[in-house]
Amino acid sequence: MDSAKKDDVFAIEALRDWATRLYRAYGFDERDADRIVDSLFFAELHGIASHGLQRIGMYDMLIGNPNGGVDVNAKAEVVRETPVSAVVDGHHAMGQITSAMAMELAINKARTSGIGIVTVRESNHFGAAGYYTNMAAEAGLLGFASTNTGPIVLPLYATHPFLGTNPIAFSMPAKPHPFFFDAATSIVSHGKIEVCKKEGRQLPEAWMVDGHYQPIWDPKQVPARPGLDVDGGMLPVGGMSEETGGHKGYGFSILAEIFCGILSQGNTSSEVDGLGIRHGVGHCFAAIDPGLFGDPDVIIDRFSDYLEQIRRVPAAPGHRVYVHGDKEEIAYQAITAEGVVRLDPETVASMRSVGDRMGVAFR
């Protein structure tokens, strides 16, 4: 593991063991460390590198930060509850731990009442939103998850950020694998910009604009931190104008704020500082039992057939028609069959630096 070449490969189980020991070294108990690592590897093994092991460096900045961030000893608390809903105060615990607890609560409510929806306030970055919707799908339920983030996205035609990347995810059981949609309401997730920067690539499209509303192509010109006073920022889904549909992504982002910041009575993205170091982010999780609407097996079989019909729609030359979740399943099967993951040099260097400082050598 001394080499940090771009094509370095690392055994999945060895990496998982190292990551678990790392989070135990921070002070998390075994169960919580396993949950954090499970979230990271869900992303990594499904080909979502932006939310995989490259996040270890960011979490290191948040854990134990004197200005706030993640409190290793904090425990999330249910502060309001009905048979179908709850509000959770994360008390600045690790986002994955609070979020898994909230989704489990939503799932339990759906099993007894048909639906469960849980909002969360004062939390932290929770990883890939689809990790939590997948929890619901594995329980035979429809799953929804969303989060707000620090302000880094521009309202349409604005020159300063006010919104977060605010992803929305949804999963539903299907055959041969669940339908799995997970997307930022910004034109891409911020993690994809980080990946371009690490790999030394220009941004392939107009993902960001500067303070004059002109596209940024060099990821090195991307502001170092989110903030209301930063010139320029990321664009919403749809891009720079109403003609390309920028108002749609802008609206989707506000929907995420409603569920995550307003209903939770927590912070909106405009009230979160940077990566959430001083003010916690909000989430929302929901689980729905398809049995509310009829025989769940019949519903899922019909949905599976519907997705298969989409896959058979004629494709443009050189392309294939996928439905959401196909690419992630293909990546998962390929990566787990090979038993290794590939990490870029900057991520390897970051993991090695964090591990050395925490006394968990990355070797």
TrEMBL record:
Signal peptide: none
Cross-referenced Pfam families: Ldh_2
Highest taxon, organism lineage: Bacteria
GO molecular function terms attached to this record: oxidoreductase activity
Keywords carried by this UniProt record: Oxidoreductase
Oxidoreductase recorded as keyword: yes
InterPro entries: Mal/L-sulf/L-lact_DH-like_ah, Mal/L-sulf/L-lact_DH-like_NADP, Mal/L-sulfo/L-lacto_DH-like_sf, Malate/L-lactate_DH-like
Similarity section: Belongs to the LDH2/MDH2 oxidoreductase family.
Protein name: Ldh family oxidoreductase
